[in-house]
Amino acid sequence: MRMPGWVTTAGPRWAAAATATALFAATALTSVPAGADDGWSGDPVASSAADTQGCAQVLLVGARGSGQEAPYGDMVDGVRSELASRLGEQRPDVDLAQVYLDYPAVSLDDIDTASVQDMVLGEESSAAPAYVASVEAGTTELERLAGAEAQRCPDEKLLVVGYSQGAEVATRALGSGALNGNLLGAVLLGNPLHYDGQNITELDGTASNRSYGLTAALYYLKAELAGSTGDRQAQVQRLIEVVVALYDGTVDAASFSSAMSGSGAAVPGEAAPRTWSVCTAGDPVCDSADALSRVLTRSTTLKEERSDGGSNHGSYTPENLPDTLDAVTAELTGLPHLAAPEEQAAATDSGRRGIILATLGVAVVLAGGTGVTLVRRRRAGQGGDEQAED
Predict the structure, then answer these.
(1) What mean pLDDT is predicted for residues 296-316?
(2) What average pLDDT does this structure show over 320-341?
(3) Which residue, 32, 109, 202, 291, could crosslink 284 as a Cys pair with Cβ 3.0–4.6 Å?
(4) 10 Å Cβ neighbour count for 79?
(5) In the prediction, which pLDDT does 318 show?
(6) Quick check: 32 and 348 in contact, CB under 8 A?
(7) Do the Cβ atoms of 204 and 350 come closer than 8 Å?
(8) Considering the entire predicted model, what is its pTM?
(9) What count of Cα atoms within 13 Å lies in the side-chain half-sphere of residue 31?
(10) Considering only 140-154, 163-177, 186-200, 337-351, which range has the smallest mean pLDDT?
């Protein structure tokens, strides 16, 4: 009730507080979270643009194979599609973002007998320079991405799926330890760095334990022939002998593992339970001893071997990866649950009510505090100045 003889005037402090309260309430009431896309259905962005996306529970990183076009290539995309279907049924609340690894992924089709011999017996590198540069670029980018995302989104987990050259890139990034901190898992399909004794989990695939990837074999051959003497013909003969040992499965596993560690291709033991590798028998990329022996004896070229073994190297489709996909699905479904859309809506409504009540409460407190000045006016006819009280 308004008291006779009194008027109220709003002082500067009240006006400022009221304005701030009104703005806060208006902002809160209009900032309603939109329903989040689960992330599976959208197109992936390049890894170099990963920071244009919001943080997610899982960041899917697809690394395509040699000569494949961005973004993923068919093998990686097949895995992505199958996981999307499974998670849509079992855990639609999993929040996911996608990137494709931004790297050259050059082809290996131009490698022939002479170039393989040069790779192993030469003094520069044990693999084709263009291929090496491509792998190094991919490894550097994957390591950069992992570090940047760990800083930007510390709770985000990485799921890396690599095929062929992309699997080698992922293996090298694992070997550097760059993925250890936020790794949910890595899927390596037709890995050129596959070898006996590798720290991996193999649930699918038909290749034997004594299968060796093309790049792994070349690094091992280079290590075995380092410092060898004699003319080129004698060196080539020794090279063929070592390849035959690879083919026969009589290579010393410890020596091979040592060569892999020396080339930065060893997966750390702690990552083994979350690193799933699949190799099909006769795949000239991950089970290369037979193909490599023919290339070195000039019976064929790597391009021809890849063409002849194309069905094997292209066998990494979801129907051939059941146990691997089950394992990855288990990791994804084991993630903490996010609030369902109806729960988010209820929380939003509750928050609105709370904001309204808080706003009213603030207004009452401010009105009863020092922000209001009461001015008492003299009754008419009494004269004198007005008196004011705070």
Answers:
(1) 76
(2) 90
(3) 291
(4) 24
(5) 98
(6) yes
(7) no
(8) 0.75
(9) 8
(10) 337-351
Q: Please tell me the predicted confidence (pLDDT) of residue 132.
A: 87
Q: How far apart are CA 105 and CA 362, in angstroms?
A: 61
Question: What b-and-e string marks burial along 181-211, b requiring 16 or more CB atoms within 10 Å of the CB?
Answer: ebbbbbbbbbbbbbbbebbbbbebbebeebb
Distances (CA, A) of 154 to 4, 116, 220, 346: 63, 43, 37, 28
Edge-first strand listing for the sheet containing 183-189: 45-46, 96-100, 58-63, 157-163, 183-189, 275-278
Domain boundaries, the chain: 6-32+341-389, 45-333
pLDDT of 341 > 90? The answer is no
∠ CA 174-211-260, nearest 5°, is 40
Place of tokens 């806060």: 24
Whole-angstrom distance, CA of residue 148 vs CA of residue 361: 44
* pLDDT tens figures, 210-220: 899 999 998 89
Burial zone of 251 (CB within 10 Å; 0-12 exposed, 13-18 middle, 19+ buried):
buried
Burial class (CB in 10 A: 0-12, 13-18, 19+), 308: middle
Q: Following CA atoms 358, 363, 369, 373 in sequence, which dihedral angle do they give, to the nearest 10 degrees? A: 170
User: 45-333 in CATH: which number?
Assistant: 3.40.50.1820
Q: Distances from the Cα of 285 to the Cαs of 56, 294, 346, in angstroms? A: 34, 14, 54
Rounded to an integer, what distance in angstroms lies between the CA atom of residue 377 and that of residue 302?
Answer: 103
